[in-house]
């Protein structure tokens, strides 16, 4: 497993712990659709959150959240719509979210930002 994969796995683990600490229930992780993958799908009350996790060690290649482009948001929206239709979800508030995690070289958290309700 390469270091990028390890960093991504570590980031998703940290994001999941953070989401649960905010009283969300994890519904799915790494949910694959024909339109793309959703890193984390979580629920809190009547809200379903589709969450993309971006994680990097340091910021020499930019901040993790800077990797979220309009194209990525478009793909997230399409994958979320697929999920909603497949699961026949009604009456839920839906949101696209990003968790950006910057790690220190020892893989501990330097900075975690949670961007909620992007669209």
CATH architecture, please? 3-Layer(aba) Sandwich
Number of domains: 1
Question: At the first level of CATH, what is the class?
Answer: Alpha Beta
Output the radius of gyration.
14 Å
Question: What can be said about the biggest beta sheet?
Answer: 5 strands, mixed
Which segments are poorly predicted (pLDDT under 50) over 5 or more consecutive residues?
Answer: none
What would your notes on this structure say?
The protein is an alpha+beta fold. It has a single domain (3-115), classed as 3-Layer(aba) Sandwich (Trna Endonuclease, Chain: A, domain 1), CATH 3.40.1350. Helices cover 31% and strands 39% of the residues. It has helices at residues 3-21, 70-87, and strands at 25-33, 36-44, 47-57, 93-103, 109-115. It has a five-stranded mixed sheet, with helices on both faces. The protein is globular. The termini are far apart. InterPro entries: Restrct_endonuc-II-like, tRNA_endonuc-like_dom_sf, UPF0102_YraN-like. Pfam families: UPF0102. This is UPF0102 protein COY90_00245. Belongs to the UPF0102 family. GO terms for molecular function: nucleic acid binding.
